[in-house]
Structures are given as C-alpha cells and as structure tokens.
What does this fold into?
Amino acid sequence: FKELGLVEILFYILPLSFIIGNLILSINLLLFIIFSFFLIKKENLDYRFNSINWFLIIFFLYLFFSTVMQFSDYDVWIQKARDAYANQPAEKNLMPSWQKKNLTLENHPIFKSLILVRFVILIFIVDTLFYNKILSLKKFFLSSLFCTSFVSLDIIFQYIFKFDIFGMKNNERYHSGPFGDELIAGGYLLSFSFLSFFYVFNKNKKLNKPLIFLTIIFHILAIALSGNRMPFIIFLFGCFLLILFIK
It folds into this structure.
C-alpha cells in the first residue's frame, strides 16, 4: 500500500514539479520510475508490448544513431565555427551563446540523444500502471487543472500589477508568472491546459456549459499575456480540434 500510494502521488504532482523547477522535476521523475519498477516487479503486474512500443524504440534508436553520424566530429566542427566567428569584426561577432560554452559530457549532442531513452521507459511504466488500473486519468486531469489555473491566475496578476504573487517582476513583453526568468509559461499552459479541459468536460458533458467556456477563455487570456506567440497559435488550433473531436 505504501509503494502504491507513493507512485500515485509522484505521478499526480508532475504538473506541479514542472512549475517548481528542473531539479525537482528530475528528482520526481527518477523516484517515480524507481518506485514504479519496484511496484511492477513486486506485484507482478501485467504489461502489454505491441507495435506502438516497437515504433517508439525504433524512433529513439534512429534519433541516437543519426545524432552519432552527424556529431561524431563535433569537437572539430565546433572549433571551426569558433574560428570563423573569431575572424569577424567585434561588432559583427554574433556567435551563438551555446557555441561559446566548453563542450562537456552533459551538453554533448550524442549524450543528450542517448538519455532521451528514459522517455521510452517512462511511457512503458505509465502504460503498465494505467493498464492495471493503478493510476487514474481523472485525478491527473484534476492536478493539471489546479496547476494551470494557478499559473494562469499568476500571469494575469503579473500583467495587472507588474509583479506576480511571489513578487517577481514582469518583462516588458513577457509575463512568465511563477517561472521567473524562464520564458516558458505559454509552453507550460499549452502542454497541460488541454488535460485540464478534459476534467471540466468530464464534469460537464455538453460544450455549451458556462464553466467550460470560462475555463477555456481564462487559459487563452493567460497564454496571450505570457507573450509566447507560437504556443498561443498552437493553443487556438488545439481548441478548434478539441471542439471538433471532443465527442
């Protein structure tokens, strides 16, 4: 029972850990994977392995090997890029900031493509837990609704008062709310807001209910005020698809 409750909590607070920061998110995901593996093995849970799993494995393997082929001489290539920028006049030296950093294992493209395999493991674990009815989509949707509503409220508050609930001041163009200097509020709302809508839809089966309309408008306003243009455009397109296919 302890392992089961811990796995559920770690999964349902994922939307919250995105807000808190990358370190907490990484720890949350790591603990979720470890305790989920322990639970699956201890309870001998059933799992399914179909063509979709093979498709994901092939995709990530392709991504890894194509990265190896492209960046096998990454050290030589990056030095040539630095030399080319160095020969330009100072006022035209527009070398991207990522090229100025020293190459380490952590920021090497090959290593970064390799550790993406963790997403295959995560998908397999989540699918197994849902298949055995351990995780509840409804609870995850509720968690997403709580977090996206909080971020949206914080962004609107920051737009009106020029600082958010935590006292962080806004940018002239961007309003990132609880994310501070990271201009990712629009992307966060884009990723989790539709999950929030699913919870509201579950409570209100018809699209003409005022609560659904107000929830969508509330999130649209927050994404627009965040200043992230592309998430806003994709969100509007997603809302169109949602209305079209919700039944």
Remarks:
- The radius of gyration is 22 Å.
- The mean pLDDT is 83.
